[in-house]
């Protein structure tokens, strides 16, 4: 699908990209560029709390799980984050609110608001305050490729070198 779309509009591919080989692959398929988030969280220049960076360095791809939504009538914004107690408690909160809804002790609008409010500020709690157990440790599956804190210039240099090698191999 990417090659067809990229013929008419510039496409930037995002999500799960951790190495230059993947960048080369998408450029080869016609992408104008890529967007990486997770790979830069542990940059020396990143203001993320040391606990947040440590959680990234320890995590593997399987630890970055999509948010759980227990009932379609109580929508949850889908995000990927590292498994932690906060995620479990959020699932429990959804069950509790769904039960209140079934019992008629809460109206639909109020129930949806309770779900939304419960997780509000959770990203800040983890990234800035460093509470990686109860905050939302948002991370893509490329978190498994984050192994140390390093300057942005080094991350970019690695990505560029990997992409260039991959593109050269394809051209040969
Ligand atoms: C710490 C962190 C916070 C993020 N916050 C948001 C957000 O508030 N809204 C959003 O749409 N995406 C958010 N994202 C997801 C980014 O959009 C995503 O990282 C980006 O598209 C690239 O994907 P990647 O992280 O797999 O490289 C966040 C990602 C991280 C790592």
Task: Please provide a written account of the structure.
The protein has 172 residues and is mainly alpha-helical. It folds into two domains: 1-44 and 150-172, no CATH class; 46-149, no CATH class. It is 47% helix and 7% strand. It has seven helices and four strands, in the order H-E-H-E-H-E-E-H-H-H-H. The protein has helices at 2-6, 20-28, 50-58, 85-103, 108-119, 122-127, 152-171, and strands at 12-14, 33-35, 64-66, 80-82. The strands form two sheets. It has a two-stranded parallel ribbon with strand order 1-2. Strands 3-4 form a two-stranded antiparallel sheet. Strand 1, helix 2 and strand 2 (33-35) form a beta-alpha-beta unit. Helix 2 (20-28) packs across helix 7 and helix 4 (85-103) runs antiparallel to helix 5. The radius of gyration is 20 Å and the shape is globular. The model has no long low-confidence stretch (mean pLDDT 95). The structure holds flavin mononucleotide. Flavin mononucleotide is lined by residues 14-17, 35-39, 41, 123, 127, 138-140, 142.
């Amino acid at each position: 699908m990417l090659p067809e779309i990229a013929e008419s509009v510039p496409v930037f591919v995002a999500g799960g990209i951790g190495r230059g080989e993947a960048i080369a692959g998408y450029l080869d398929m016609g992408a104008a560029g890529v967007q990486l988030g997770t790979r830069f969280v542990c940059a020396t220049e990143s203001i993320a709390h040391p606990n947040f960076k440590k959680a990234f360095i320890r995590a593997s791809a399987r630890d970055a799980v999509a948010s759980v939504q227990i009932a379609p009538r109580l929508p949850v914004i889908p995000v990927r984050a590292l498994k932690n107690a906060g995620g479990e408690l959020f699932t429990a909160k959804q069950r509790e609110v769904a039960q209140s809804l079934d019992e008629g002790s809460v109206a639909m609008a109020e129930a949806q608001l309770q779900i939304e409010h419960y997780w509000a500020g959770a990203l800040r709690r983890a990234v800035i305050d460093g509470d990686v157990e109860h905050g939302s440790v948002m991370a893509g599956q490329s978190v498994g490729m984050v192994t140390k804190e390093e300057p942005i210039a080094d991350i970019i240099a690695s990505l560029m070198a990997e992409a260039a090698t991959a593109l050269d191999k394809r051209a040969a």
